[in-house]
Amino acid sequence: MPIHTEILIYDHFDELDALGPYDVLVLAGFDVALVTAEPADQIVAAQGTIIVPHRKLSDRVELLIVPGGPWTKRGPRGTWNEVQRGVLPPIISARHADGATVASVCTGAFLLAAGGLLNGRPATTHHDDFDDLEGKATPVIRDARVVDDGDIVTAGGVTSGIDMALWLTEKHVGSEVADRTTEMLEHRRDRSVWRAKEAR
Fold first, then answer.
1. Would residue 46 be called left, alpha or beta, if left means φ above 0 and alpha means ψ between -120 and 50 degrees?
2. Are 155 and 104 a contacting pair, CB within 8 Å?
3. CA distance 126 to 107
4. CA separation (Å) from 63 to 6, 73, 98, 130, 177?
5. 71: alpha, beta or left, given left = phi > 0 and alpha = psi -120 to 50?
6. pLDDT at position 198, please?
7. How far is Cα 177 from Cα 168, in angstroms, rounded to an integer?
8. Cα–Cα separations (whole angstroms), residue 133 to 14, 69, 122
9. Are 12 and 73 in contact, with CB atoms under 8 Å apart?
10. Closest Cα to residue 154, out of 76, 98, 82, 96?
11. pLDDT digit string, tens, across residues 62-118
12. One-letter-per-residue 3-state SS of 24-72
């Protein structure tokens, strides 16, 4: 059975954070949808791309991917604003509590942290925001594009989400599918995955 995967998009998310993993996972045979936490006919992403979501976030999901967006400048739209608004973090946390593996790309890690998911857990984010993640994740991994702590997986900035999706493909359906997907994408895969010694 294809792995039920949802990518949670929101106002001013970064396009490549979501669409990079989306393309990888669709090609790899996952069941993937772009979803919103609240009803929305369309979402405007950080670079102005208008996205029509497939549906609302499901009550049950096997793999939930959370993209990042503007954070560093503390703007009125994007990831910083979503953390301040406080709607998404508990929703993400609830899906994790119900058994979903939760993965973030770039500053999406701060939405996980705001929901308490990175307490005592290793994680990474965009290199500009390593210092800001200190104290929210333990430790912050600064030298890997992907950090796998079992049911929590985080990726560095932007294009790292492609490598994260290829890693999740390898982890869930095997290296042959991951290698074939990498070849289809004509991507030079970065395999620097930091893995926890004990899977959770």
1. alpha
2. yes
3. 6
4. 6, 30, 11, 25, 18
5. alpha
6. 55
7. 11
8. 19, 15, 10
9. no
10. 96
11. 999 999 999 999 999 999 999 999 999 999 999 999 999 999 999 999 999 999 999
12. HHHHCCCEEEEEECCCCCCEECCCCCEECCCEECCCCCCEEEECCCCCC
* CA 63 – CA 119 distance, rounded (Å): 20
Residue 14's SS3 state is coil
Distance of alpha carbon 31 from alpha carbon 5, whole angstroms: 6
55-56 vs 31-36, strand pairing mode: parallel
Asked whether 26 and 80 are in contact (CB, 8 A), the reply is: no
Per the CB < 8 A criterion, the answer to whether 199 and 150 are in contact is yes
The string of pLDDT tens digits covering residues 122-172 is 999 999 999 999 999 999 999 999 999 999 999 999 999 999 999 999 999
Q: How many CB atoms lie within 10 A of CB 29?
A: 14
3-state SS assignment for residue 168: helix
Smallest CA-to-CA distance from 36 within 13, 55, 60 is with 55
Which of 113, 101, 98 minimizes the C-alpha distance to 164? 101
Tell me how far the alpha carbon of residue 21 is from its chain's centroid.
8
pTM summary value: 0.97
Query: Dihedrals φ, ψ of 112, to 5°?
Result: -65, -45
